[in-house]
Amino acid sequence: MKVTLEQVNCWNCSKFTEEFGGLFERSPWIAEQAWVKRPFLSLDHMFNVMKHLVLNWSAEQKLTLLRSHPDLGTRLSMSSDSKNEQISAGLDSLDASLFAELERLNQAYTSKFSFPFIMAVKGQSPESIASTMNIRLSQSYDLEFDAALQEVVKIASFRLETWRQNHEIEGGSTMKSSTLFERTMYYGKGDVWVYRSYAKPLTGVYAVPDSSFAGRPNILFGMNIKVAVKGEAFLTSFSKGDNTLIVATDSMKNFILRQAGHFEGATMEGFLEFASRRLLETYPQMTGVQMTADQVTFDSLPVVDGGGFVPSDLVFRYSQDEHATAAIEIVREGDEVCILNHFSGVADLKFIKVRGSSFAGFVRDEYTTLPETYDRPLFIFLSIGWRYEDALDGIDDVRGNYVDAQQVRDIAAALFHEQNSPSIQNLIYRIGLRILSSFPHLEEVWFESNNRTWETIVETIDDSEGRVFTEPRPPYGFQGFSMTRADLENAADQVSTGELLWQES
Predict the structure, then answer these.
(1) CA pair distance 307, 134, nearest whole angstrom
(2) Are 397 and 265 in contact (CB under 8 A)?
(3) What residues contact 261, with CB distance under 8 A and at least 6 apart?
(4) What does DSSP assign to residue 433?
(5) Helix, strand and coil percent figures for the chain, each rounded to 5
(6) Cα dist. 504→116, 384, 418, 437 in Å?
(7) What is the torsion angle, in degrees rounded to the nearest 10, for the CA atoms of residue 435, residue 487, residue 390 and residue 172?
(8) What is the C-alpha R_g of the chain?
(9) I want to staple 296 with a disulfide (CB 3.0 to 4.6 A). Which of 62, 67, 222, 359 is the partner?
(10) Can you say how many angstroms the Cα of residue 263 is from the centroid of all Cα atoms in its chain?
């Protein structure tokens, strides 16, 4: 069966797990967790994602994986993959003495280490396996634990190679996508400003303690969209100037604007998916669509109603504050259209904390002029992105799992308020932990931050806590960082052992 990278990236979780769930013995959840990391650039990339998941698990999770493997040379129940591997090494036809020897070694090994002896037996003989067992029996627990885990990874790599050999891979042995690697070719339209009035109200928001945000009426639903389309059919427009199949970018703009009138959802991510899918359905020469959007925010102005002020449902202010962002990429594979990639975010946050931040203990040498500070004001620019484990949670708020940019902003602000931060790096790390723990259906979060801390001009003012500041000099520091649920699990382990101490102001 011929398989392409785009097909693999388009498989649903069930199909993906059916194909790759057996790579790691009796542990299909590794494939399930890797599935959300799509798109993959090759089979090797996919396997490295799985390997990274395993190697970053907690010790308890790794032990469970080791214990999923059968003893070598026994007649106990095992997976078909393990059975075939043991047959190839001659472990199904042992004579009585060698069977007894392997049984003794298995028992001694399991008694000492509490998990079975694991070895990638491809190319091995019963005698070489028994010899290796004797050698590894003398190792310490930590060394043998690591050795067994490496053998697990090796077994999985052999199984993947078998899968590769059993499939006629289109695009080469590394299963590279022609659209990704052979040619860069796309065109599109930017600054497509869309304003829809009286869209469906946003209600299906996942509630969290750090934010009071529960939804919005969407009386005004605004976006600035950028769209790019791709397809091999467009090659002649580049190479020969033949525009026969070209959809004018002005037509794309009009198409997107018209789709806003048909959209029945409540989220920006949902509209991007809706309009992208409609493009592929309308124009068969397009094989992929990428859309990104910045939310255009409108704040309701307060008006007098009776004895007090209430938010107007008619008059709004164009907001210049932070805004939500989103992106989606969908592709056509045969008769199917699937989501290849997606993300959501909040951009252009600007936070200042007037005290309770420090920066000290950094490298000091002949190039260092920056003084250490222990209670400085901290002014940062911050953008945060996140990806759902299931893209539909962002597309359809009816599922009740939607994460709004305002919620993420509120979480970041709450953490900034609570923490006596020793650095911006540590601040965004802890914000990431809070976001991942607040939203269990997010699989990744990432940050871009700038240090825009003001320059202090007057250190003390009589009878006041105040100081005087001005804008900083033009060079600024910046940070980038990403986190997954593995970081959250590792942090929980560190807290339980006292390795990670939390500082609050």
Answers:
(1) 87
(2) yes
(3) 196
(4) H
(5) 40, 30, 35
(6) 45, 22, 5, 18
(7) 140
(8) 28
(9) 222
(10) 27
How far are the Cα atoms of 22, 67, 269 from residue 156, in angstroms, in the given order?
8, 15, 36
Beta strands in 220-284 (DSSP E): 220-230
Q: What's the CA gap between 264 and 438, in Å, rounded?
A: 28
The catalytic site residues sit at: 69, 189, 200, 249
Closest CA to 449 of 472, 474, 475, 481: 481
- The candidate with the shortest Cα–Cα distance to 347, out of 289, 300, 259, 412, is 412
Dihedral over alpha carbons 405, 411, 417, 418 (to 10 degrees)? -170
Tens of pLDDT along the chain (505 residues) come to: 678 887 888 888 888 999 999 999 999 999 998 888 887 877 888 998 899 889 888 888 999 999 999 887 665 556 777 777 787 766 777 888 888 888 899 999 999 999 999 999 888 888 899 999 999 999 999 999 999 999 999 999 999 989 988 886 654 334 433 333 346 889 999 999 999 999 999 999 999 999 999 999 999 999 999 999 999 999 999 999 999 999 999 999 999 999 999 999 999 999 999 999 999 999 999 999 999 999 999 999 999 988 899 999 999 999 888 999 999 999 987 778 888 889 999 999 999 999 888 899 999 999 999 889 888 889 999 999 999 999 999 998 899 999 999 999 999 999 999 988 899 999 999 999 999 999 999 999 999 999 998 888 999 999 999 999 999 988 889 999 999 888 898 887 666 555 554 444 4
Taking the alpha carbons at both ends of the chain, their separation in whole angstroms is 61
Q: What phi and psi, each to the nearest 5 degrees, are found at residue 132?
A: -65, -40
Amino acid at 242: D
Quote the tokens at residue 222.
């605004």
Alpha-carbon gap, residue 363 to 67, rounded angstroms? 45
φ, ψ of residue 397 to 5 degrees: the values are -75, -10
Amino acid sitting at position 492: A
Calculate helix-pair angle for 141-165, 59-66, nearest 10 degrees: 60
Distances 23 to 118, 161, 393, 442 between C-alpha atoms, Å: 15, 10, 28, 25
Both structure tokens of 177: 């996508």
Residue with tokens 């199917």: 336
Cα angle 365-371-375, degrees, rounded to a multiple of 5:
140
The H or E element containing residue 10 is helix 5-10
Name the helix (H) or strand (E) containing 344.
strand 336-359
